[in-house]
Amino acid sequence: MNAAAAIVIVDYGTGNLNSIKRTLDRMGIGCVISSSASDIVDAGKIILPGVGHFGTAMSKLNSLGLADVLNDEVVTNRKPVLGICLGMEIMAKTSEEGDANGFGWLDARAVRFDISDSDRHKIPHMGWNEISIKKSSRLMEGIDDTAEFYFAHSYYLMLDDPTDLLAETEYGSRFPSAIERENIFGVQFHPEKSHDIGARLLKNFVEM
Question: May I ask the CATH architecture of the domain 7-206?
Fold first, then answer.
């Protein structure tokens, strides 16, 4: 990779990589899909995509030798990282999905929706839903407080540090739909499936 400031979309066997790349390509933003440790080290920013199983994802990252590299770049070198859906969930300490530890970048755990009204709220939560922005952030610049994004998930983060909450969404109960802690960003929704508003969020991340 011609490295200096490229965005690396980390390939660890989950879905939606090409959708993210196509969205960035349309905006003229240089990016690569890669499972190379050297590309991650050279990258300007990192995107952790994700559609899949928490335990399987962490096992794959460890088997590829990427977990330690990502820890070094994000925690030690403070490289900006954006987790999308499962990519945000693996930033937590643990999950109810799979017997594996996450990165522990957030004081949080991933839990499955416990929905009492199953006629009204189906699991997985799929479709468009509003977010409610809770603090100022460059990630949300130019995005309305009640903007709608596309969701597809069965798990969400239970935050033990409320200062990490960036936005929340109502689906049976309120859950974190975006987080921010210093150089660490995550969204439970899929910006790559959220048309212009999702492209704006990705552009905001890239231009930080």
Answer: 3-Layer(aba) Sandwich (3.40)
